[in-house]
Amino acid sequence: MAAGGLAIAPAQADDATAPYMAADDGAPSLFDVELKPGEFIWEPELAADGEVHAYVDLGRQLVHVYRGDTRIGMSTISSGMPGHETPTGTFEILQKRVEHYSNLYNNAPMPYMQRLTWDGIAFHVGKLPGEPASHGCIRLPREFAMAFFDTTSMGGVVEIAGLAGVEDPQLAAGDFREAPLTPEAQTAELNRAAANGELDIDEL
């Protein structure tokens, strides 16, 4: 079911651009659809147990959410524009806030913020023009962002891969690392300061 009352038509089986087309048994998948900007699918009842993790496909501008090995959600996104590209790698959710404002960009609202780096990269509600348009954050539809926020936990794994504007058929939605790596964007100094309580995260 597509949340928000959105009508989403299944993609054709021979459509090479449709993301992750079929289940192993060849049966159509709930997620074998082409989503328009702002559309998403959220079906948390598909899996009751397991750690929640997310996979961001920058090439297709999609995020896939898994509980254990089962995909429970998929949404369109808007990632970083040229010059402000969203970093790739494996991240952990470092901070969660329902109400948050950017200290870097004129106090811009960032509802349902889930921080991935201490230097400003996060999931949050935002405009979805159908292309990369943020300053590096991953924008989400409001209803999806709310459900995603309520489902994740601190330390949850987020894998970001690909290149905006380039669809790589070799990228697999389920290809994530169990042990999160420290992304380059989170410098040793920032991590050390955060661990020692010397970093004022309220100002980030």
Mean pLDDT over all positions: 75
Tell me the Rg in angstroms.
17 Å
Distance between the termini: 36 Å
Percent in strands: 15-25%
Going by helix content, strand content and strand pairing, the class is mainly beta
Pfam families: YkuD
Organism: Pacificimonas aurantium
Active site: 124 (proton donor/acceptor), 137 (nucleophile)
InterPro entries: LD-transpeptidase (IPR050979), LD_TPept_cat_dom (IPR005490), Transpep_catalytic_dom (IPR038063)
Short description:
The protein has 204 residues and is mainly β. Helix content is 9%, strand content 22%.
What can you tell me about this protein's structure?
The protein is mostly beta strands. It has 2 helices and 10 strands. A 6-stranded mixed beta sheet has the order 1-4-3-2-10-5, covered by helices on one side. A 4-stranded mixed beta sheet has the order 6-7-8-9. A hairpin with a 2-residue loop joins β3 (62-67) and β4. The protein starts with 39 loop residues before the first strand and ends in a 9-residue tail after the last helix. The relative contact order is 0.19. The model is unreliable at 1-26 and 172-188 (pLDDT under 50). Keywords: Cell shape, Cell wall biogenesis/degradation, Peptidoglycan synthesis, Transferase. It comes from Pacificimonas aurantium. The active site is at 124 (proton donor/acceptor), 137 (nucleophile). Pathway: Cell wall biogenesis; peptidoglycan biosynthesis. This is L,D-transpeptidase family protein.
